[in-house]
Amino acid sequence: MRVPRRCHCGKTLLIEIKALERLLPVHQAQVLTYLKLSGIGRGLLINFNTKLLKDGIQRYVF
Question: How many domains does the chain have?
């Protein structure tokens, strides 16, 4: 399981990092499972294999 990092707002944020051609539903399910099991409410799935980084960021709230 990933180690949660603290953001500047004082809340916990889970970050999952990938470098794939494209993200599959299994990657989204993975983040949601981590959020559910850890009790963390917010998470980011970041794919670095994109031309623009902003296109590779997906936000999740559980």
Answer: 1
